[in-house]
Amino acid sequence: MVSNASEPSMRVNGALLPMYTGQKVVLVGTVAQVDPSGSSLMVKASDGKMVMVTLPNPLQGVIEVHGVGQGQKVMCQSYITFPQMQADKFDAALYDEALKLIQSVRDNPWKPDM
Amino acid sequence: MWSDSAGGGFNTSFGGDNGAGYGTQQFASPGPEAKRQNRRIESVLPLTIQTVLGLDENNQEYLGTPVNMVTVMGLIQEVNVTSTKVTYTLNDTTGTICAIKWLDSETEEEPLMENTYCQVHGTFKTHQGNKQLLALHLEPITDLNWITAHMLEVVYTALQLQRIKTEASDSGLGKGALAGSSDGMSNSMVGFGGLAGPGMPGGDMGGSGSGGYSLMGLTAQQKMVFEVIRSIVDDSENTGYSREHIKAKLKGKVTPQQVDNVLFFLSSEGHVYTTVDEDHFRATDG
């Protein structure tokens, strides 16, 4: 996914990071906090400094979660976002009706053959 | 248009965002013995991958309809690129299948990425025991509403085929049954055109062929003019009716100017054709 993977990058901590503006860096740390918008998170770097990390594919908008059902929760195995699609363009009511249809209609192709 | 011209083709207009449906055209050869072999049904059936996997390789049929082209929508789980082709492994929550897209040396296309939804139009084939899709058109989905649409089209197709199947067997190929399902077909073609392949086991467009010619889409005036031309008797020289004759017959119902307009329209649509000169018309009887 990295377009210029062949170029070398520098490992940095929070203090060294400003020296490499515009250059490729590698930052290791622990996740301190995930921003509610889903587009950034705060990482505690190895020297204790907090660094804000912005994600290329923000977790926002329309998302399709694949996983295992656990009561009211879903244990996610993978997910797909539709970044080019605005959340309000998705006709949720229609999709809801469609999925109720495929659940209920007798002998429709979406039901797994037992 | 229900004509028996043999040029099969399907109108494919894709546009993920403009919501254009994919139209299909069905060409059926009417006549008293429209057997399966004479019919060239070229419809694109929206199916689930599970259904496609369940197709029998020798007798490709789905609910009584011969299957030619199918469309499925699924998530790409694996991409395998070689110099001649790209193999995508597709999963649509009902099953997994491989879709093969052969590469031209001219087209430089980037293969789609894993974990993206895509829509495939293609034909079903079996290769060394594995069922595969030969992808003719493969397009990524950027709008989740397309998935909703596909879900509905699959169910609609299945139910419609079911209905035709039971109608054909119940009513015994009555013209009414066929007309009923034909209307359903034309509506669906206008709507989102997912299907236009009714199983017409031996069904015909009316016993004699002329009675069943569809006049859908013509205005009342056009129908009148057309009927006049079609009902010609004693036309041993095959000259058809002259323009003046048609106008005289419809005197009081259709003005001469309107007759001219209608004749122009009918001949450009192909319903009538000119014979000895530009003023004699015959009907292209279905």
Architecture overview:
The complex is a heterodimer of chains A (114) and B (286). Chain A has 1 helix and 7 strands; from the N terminus they run βββββββα. Chain A is mainly beta. Chain A has a domain at 10-87: Beta Barrel (OB fold (Dihydrolipoamide Acetyltransferase, E2P)). In chain A, the strands form 3 sheets. Chain A has a 3-stranded antiparallel β-sheet, with no helix packed on it. Chain A has a two-stranded parallel sheet with strand order 1-2. In chain A, strands 6-7 form a two-stranded antiparallel ribbon. The two termini of chain A are 39 Å apart. Chain B has 286 residues and is an alpha+beta fold. Chain B is built from 6 helices and 11 strands. In chain B, a hairpin with a 4-residue loop joins β5 and β6. In chain B, α2 packs antiparallel against α3 and α4 (220-230) crosses α6 (256-269). In chain B, 33% of the residues are buried.
Name of the CATH first level of the domain at 10-87 in chain A: Mainly Beta
Strand ordering within the main sheet of chain A: 3-4-5
Helix content of chain A: 10-25%
Instruction: Work out the number of β strands of chain A.
Output: 7
Subcellular location (chain A): Nucleus
Pfam families (chain A): Rep_fac-A_3 (PF08661)
Keywords (chain A): Nucleus
Protein name (chain A): Replication protein A3
